[in-house]
Amino acid sequence: MLRPLLSLSAISFLLTIPASAQETAANQPAFDIVSIRPHKDGATPDTGPTPNGYRSIDAPLLVAIRNAYIPTGQGEMAYFSEDRILNVPDWLRRDHYDLEARVAEADLNRWHKPTEQGPMLRAMLQAALADQLKLAIHRETKAAPVYELTVNKNGPKFAESKPGTPRPPGMNLPDGGVLVMSAPDHLMHLYGCTIQVLARLLTNMTGRQVVDKTGLTGHYDLAIDRIPIQAPAAPSATGNPPADEGPSIFTALADRLGLRLVSTKTSIETLVIDHIEKPIPN
Fold first, then answer.
1. How many helices (H) and strands (E) does the chain have?
2. Is the pTM of this model over 0.70?
């Protein structure tokens, strides 16, 4: 079974600053207006913060849940991969909605501060989801398979970005980099990207949590094939893909980047949905 290529809307939600209402800090504001309606054809898919709020257009509501919660103690760049959210009803993955939320005028100055927007977004989304979907959720730790992203013995095949070098237009990344999906060479290019962001992309591509173990801490220019991604399968101890499965993310990483994914098991934090209801259009 092949996973489809990442869509721009999927990448957008994945890379925005990304867990129940009981976690919301008492001093956090709430969205002034929240609208959730079944998606109608015609609206352009778009997910993430806006100058005056948040939107998730033509996307499952699971997208908003993933934007509302981050693993405990792992910082702004961490997020819950889909396999780490449990008790998800089929409609929450399948049905597409248009969610639009607006920040109150009195809170806009705070919203526009980069250090404030992430915590505000999560707290207000948590409150909105609890109100609109009656969402109740808790966290659990369990043993689960993950991939560790490591460097091959010959080292990485990409270089650090040079400050001031012009970049082609693309989607801005939260680490200051740029993602270009429509390059003529059919590669997915990342300019000024951290390996932490690459690991988040790979998590979505493989369907399994990818943990950065490269030790690379800079900003890099790199490119990887835009190929269909094999559903999660255990590579060998060297990180190579299973035989006769054809092109995969494992060979793409090794050939182009000098990186590898090694399958292992570790304790990870999960989100467990205790209760959720379909939204009533408002």
1. 7, 15
2. no
